[in-house]
Write a structure and sequence with these properties.
Two copies of one chain form a homodimer. Chain A is α/β, with parallel strands linked by helices. Chain A has helices spanning 7-22, 26-39, 49-64, 71-94, 98-108, 122-131, 139-148, 161-172, 191-196, 222-230, 238-245, 261-267; strands spanning 136-137, 152-155, 176-180, 204-207, 233-237, 252-257, 274-278.
């Protein structure tokens, strides 16, 4: 997905939120915004938003000197999600179609986001997503694909959401490779966060090599690219992965909640809608 | 009022909205944002937001070549408000305290705003403001001051809102000088807009000399400054005037709706709250 003009004010909102998570000093935070201001003219609209996001968050790190401003928030999100795990498992177990319910929960977990949408309400949203009709619903195609898939790659998104991913992977009941980010960026899950969420028990956890808040294939490791090209089912979670992988035509399914107007517009849905979309299908 | 860090993302949002009102060409709009990006490091947080706003909108004009992107929207707002005028007059005439109701309507008119809050719903908001309790209510002090005031200066805000100002000035029943902006900026009322709204029939319409979306005293004309210093009652409408005049200690009353979190915080109220605040009173 390209960068829309509306993404630019949002980069400043995100830089401000991240800088405030890192430091209290107003002068330092202002310097972050000054530096992000200098970046604007260098943003090519043809690139995806996470490619710029990578530079924005790098600026936050460099100016504040704080490498991982969201470390505490990430741990908190994982702990909260782990506390919910037993009740979520019960919802899946009791469901008529456990896989379908697990897909819903995996999408609900995508609400945990300190980038585009820091004002989320997790438990309220879980209930909503469990009962909401999906705006794009390629679940049947996903189920069919899963039945025959042998090489399954699951591209994770945020820390905490990872616990919900675990539930889906368990419901899938198949060997899965779970790819996390190479380094901390916003509240995206690293391999460490994935392991802390219990994903090591149900999947092979690897790094994609991406240090952007998404999966910029040019920045990924060769190992990941091999897995990506060889997979017969790819699950792409969340906005950042959609933004960077939306032009891929492989056996990829995007599971996400459209949390910002730009992505909603790109998908042809409304903000707040949930989606399971097959990459090679027209919308 | 100082510029808060949260104002910076908002400057980009406003620049984008204004540039889109001016032109369709994405490359030109991107150039506006690039240029606003270069401005960020030059924004002193000690200055008021309209001082930066002035530079932002100047950039929009320079890059797009469109001097008044909101001309059509302003005319539309005035026409809409003029169409409401008879029913608004009736509300005032039938009210127990016509002056108090006219104050409410003048504040309701402040919802017309293409800067901080372009998604307004005028008629819905009028009803709300008519019945809503004011978060800061120095109406009695205003009424007392009005009883003895001889030199009344009314500092206007947006085009369309001016029709609501006319209603308040009529209810005040006193000679009033109405000050509008020196040149078009956002949808702020110029003298031309004020006259078009019918204010010439009930007040002496002048320009403040300000070319910012507020009243930056350093940029105002000597004539306006004489009136400002000599007034025994000043009515300051809207956010932009509050942002630039909030440190004044004279006989000034701010009538506004807090439409953004930054101003709400500065006033100690919630977003959406309405206010009639005496300048020399603590909140």
């Amino acid at each position: 997905m390209k960068t829309y003009l509306d993404c630019i004010p949002c980069f400043f909102k995100q830089a401000l939120f991240a800088a405030r998570a890192a430091v209290d000093d107003e002068a330092i935070i202002k310097e972050v915004l000054d530096r992000v201001g200098m970046l604007v003219s260098k943003i090519p609209l043809e690139s995806s938003p996470p490619e710029t996001g990578k530079e924005v968050y790098k600026t936050v790190r460099e100016v504040t000197g704080v490498d991982d401003p969201f470390k505490g928030l990430k741990e908190e999100s994982i702990d909260k999600a782990l506390a919910l795990y037993p009740s979520l498992k019960e919802i899946v177990t009791k469901a008529k179609d456990p896989l379908e319910t697990a897909v819903r929960l995996a999408i609900a977990g995508n609400v945990i986001d300190f980038g585009a949408n820091p004002d989320f309400e997790l438990e309220k949203d879980i209930q909503k997503v469990l009962h909401q009709e999906r705006a794009i619903n390629h679940y049947q195609a996903f189920k069919d694909k899963l039945a025959s898939a042998r090489r399954i790659l699951y591209v994770g998104d945020n820390a905490g959401e990872t616990v919900f991913d675990k539930i889906l992977i368990e419901a899938m009941g198949r060997p899965v490779i779970f790819a996390a980010r190479e380094r901390p960026i916003i509240n995206d899950a690293t391999t460490e966060d994935a392991i802390r969420s219990g994903l090591g028990e149900v999947a092979t956890v690897i790094s994609s090599g991406s240090d952007a808040p998404g999966t910029v294939l040019e920045g990924c490791s060769d190992d990941f690219l091999d897995l990506f090209k060889g997979a017969d089912l790819i699950i792409s979670k969340g906005q950042g992965n959609y933004e960077t992988l939306s032009t891929e035509k492989g056996p990829i399914f995007y599971l996400l909640k459209a949390k910002c107007p730009v992505i909603a517009k790109d998908l042809g849905v409304e903000v707040g809608h949930t989606v399971i979309k097959h990459g090679s299908s027209p919308i």
